Amino acid sequence: MDRKSFIKKYIAIFIIAIIAVIVLSVMVKYNVEGETNIPFKISKIMIISTAGGIEKENHTNKWDLNVLQINDIYIDIIKNKNYSEEEIIDKIIIDNFKIENKPIKGNVAIYRPSNNKVIFNNKEEYKIDKELTYIGDQASNLEELKIANQGGLILLRCVNENLGNYISNEDEIRHDGTLLGKIGLSNEEIKFNISFDIKVELKSGKKYKTEVKVQMPKGNLIQEGTTDYQINGNEIVFKR
Question: How many other C-beta atoms can be found within 10 angstroms of the C-beta atom of residue 208?
């Protein structure tokens, strides 16, 4: 191989290597940052944790409760003020639910809202099987699973069920996380992690997706009774 051919080959390999590095850098950046300017985004996700009990029928004691641990998830979807074009939400889909780490005690179930007055009702008919879909409309309506087409709140509930029974003749009890301590549970025994996808589909045909990971419950629920924490919008990455 003469000197000129060798130089041409070396330059070609060098250019290919530079292009590969640039492409890889773009891919890594997109994987970390996602879409930088999307029509709608999540401003925050709030998780509020507590506990409660379902009263058994025909009981002889003042209190005979099937105790469960409750986690309500509030997802705030807002219009991006920096996005100049007009877009309309067609639907918001929450799916691909996974229990990453199961609790030591109990069984996890996920519920949709029941109506606008009693937001959640832990009945079989409201249990989410595969996905939860909110349809874009003029105004939000929890009972009909509608979200305002320019943004609004969407809700779901994760419940750790079958934790045990609380039987007592006390005059008053607190229907919160302290009930868990009364039946001998610890904070470590009820902790679990879940993940799910949030998909934003627009009337224009554009689609965006993000994965959310949530730990529940956080904090010392058994002592405090109710705990909460927030996932900020800048921690949530949407991709096409």
Answer: 18
User: What is the DSSP-derived secondary structure letter of residue 234?
Assistant: G
pLDDT for 131 beyond 80: yes
Cis previous bond, 103, omega within 30:
no
In the three-class reduction of DSSP (H, G, I as helix; E, B as strand; rest coil), residue 221 is classed as: helix
How far, in Å, CA of 68 to CA of 38, rounded?
39
- For 231, the token pair is 């996932």
**Amino acid code (one letter) for 109:** A
Q: How many residues does the chain have?
A: 240
Q: What is the pTM of this model?
A: 0.86
Nearest to 41 by CA among 239, 240, 233: 233
- Give the largest CA-CA distance in the chain: 100
Per-residue burial over 83-95, b = 16 or more CB atoms within 10 Å of its CB, e = otherwise: eeeebebbbbbbe
